[in-house]
Amino acid sequence: MTNPVIYATEAQPNYWLATIPGVMGCNASGKTRDEAIANVRRAFRAYLELLDARGVAVEHWKGLDSERFAVAENPPEGPFYPEDKAPLEEHDLRDFLHVFEVQQAALIALVSELSVEDMERKPDADTWSVREALEHMMTTQAALLSRLEQWPKDPFNTLQSIHRVVFQRFTVMEPAETMAVRTIRGRPWTVRRVMRRILEHEWEHYGHVKEIITALGRSPKG
Predict the structure, then answer these.
(1) Taking residues 138-158, what's their average pLDDT?
(2) Are 9 and 78 in contact (CB under 8 A)?
(3) How sure is the predictor about 1, in pLDDT bands with cuts at 50, 70 and 90?
(4) Buried/exposed 81-93: b ≥16 CB within 10 Å, e otherwise
(5) For the chain, what is the total number of helices (H) and then of strands (E)?
(6) pLDDT, tens digit, 9 for 90 and up, residues 64-77
(7) Closest CA to 4 of 60, 53, 55
(8) Residue 131 to residue 208: CA distance in whole angstroms
(9) Rounded to an integer, what distance in angstroms lies between the CA atom of residue 27 and that of residue 20?
(10) Class of CATH domain 1-87
(11) Can you give the residue ranges of every domain in the chain?
(12) CA dist 145 to 3, 7, 87, Å?
């Protein structure tokens, strides 16, 4: 198998991301380009170990030495890599879903024994808490899914999926859970407050979308 290629991108000042698109899911960060590249070379082996331990076939990568991976300049469309343009085959979807399930299981196992205090506590002022990291993952996945939509010609799959998640979450709620008061990032939250903010946020942006449509010279139908 040909050695995969590493690409590095400055996501923001003093924060670089290095990725190996040929090994979908493997990336690392660093304060400099060189640090991010060195980190992703190390991450390659750790990533294979995680996948292998949870039943993902990695034999086709095991013989590769990440120290030999070439580093390429980002293409003009970057970060849109040549590997992203390859035709998607049926097994690619199956492989993605398998790895996605494995990563989710590994993540849940990683945090399942933490206390409430550990979930909320930040190691230092510049580092997220575990809760903040998990919330970032949830919101980013929803945002990335929306990249698949072809509004308005498709049935708003992601938007409706998120609504189904909200509906399901409240449907399975136990009575005792509805009475709890949780302190999140130093602020109290109750189920009723979450319900209120969901509806307020939806209504606020319903009006926002109407204003945009009107500004485009169209007549809102809702």
Answers:
(1) 88
(2) yes
(3) low
(4) beeeeeeeeeeee
(5) 8, 6
(6) 999 999 999 888 87
(7) 60
(8) 29
(9) 6
(10) alpha beta
(11) 1-87
(12) 29, 23, 19
Q: What are the beta bridge partners of residue 53?
A: none
Amino acid at 5: V
Question: Quick one: tokens of 130?
Answer: 């575990």
Mean pLDDT of 30-57: 96
Place of tokens 């307020």: 200
Residues with Cβ within 8 Å of residue 181, at least 6 apart in sequence: 188, 189, 190
Q: 194-201, long-range: CB within 8 Å, 24+ apart, which pairs?
A: 195/170, 198/166
Angle at 111 between CA 107 and CA 112, to 5 degrees: 105
| Spatial CA neighbour of 25 closest among 80, 103, 91 | 103
Residues sharing a CB contact under 8 Å with residue 219, sequence separation 6 or more, in sequence order: 213
pLDDT in tens, 191-211: 999 999 999 999 999 899 889
> What 8-state DSSP symbol labels residue 125?
T
Give the contacts of 179 (CB within 8 A, at least 6 positions apart).
191
Cβ neighbours around 27 below 10 Å, total: 21
Please report, for residues 73, 218, 220, the alpha-carbon distance to residue 209 in angstroms, rounded to integers and kept in the order given: 39, 12, 9
Amino acid at 129: S
What is the reported pLDDT for 222?
63
Task: Read off the pLDDT of each residue in 86-98 and give the average, rounded to a whole number.
Answer: 92
